[in-house]
Amino acid sequence: MNESHSTPMSNKEDIVDASPKSEDLHEVAIEAYKLIQSRVKAQHHIPEVANILQDEIRTIRHLSRVEQGCMSEEFP
Question: What H or E segment, with its residue span, contains residue 50?
Answer without folding.
Answer: helix 22-68
